[in-house]
Each structure stands twice: as C-alpha cells, then as structure tokens.
Write a structure and sequence with these properties.
By secondary structure, the protein is mainly alpha-helical. It has four helices and no strands.
Amino acid sequence: MNRLADLDRVLDAVSHSRSAFEQYHALWTACLMLGSLEPRQRERIVEAVEEQLGATGRIKAGSQRHVLAQRILRALSVREDA
C-alpha cells in the first residue's frame, strides 16, 4: 500500500522539529495515521510524544501541540500525566 505519510519522517518531525509549526503538523499527521499502524509503530509514536512532553521536550502545557499529544496518548490508552 502506498502511504502519503511516512512514519519515520513524522517521528523525526515530532522529535527534531525545526519549528512549533512543523511539530504541530507532525503531531496532527501522527493522529491521522494511528488507525493504520502496527503495535511497534504505535509504541514508537508514544515514545516520541512522551519524550517531547517531558521536562526537556518542546511541547508545553497549554499549547495546541500539547492538546494533540494528549489526544495521541489517549487514543493509544497511555497515561495522560506524562
């Protein structure tokens, strides 16, 4: 199957984005991809999102990126207080 979104590129944009705009759109794309991913791919998304929600990450509480990150974790049934 041809995919418009490539998981490795999306993960790179979540983890190493050059701007908040780029990270927001990577998170949005990740949301759209969730239903078509294998379990290990979902784990990789969770790992990247949790890292960015952490103390050294770029996703700050109250931002739209935070809302999308929490949506991803909820969809994958992961703790929200990361």
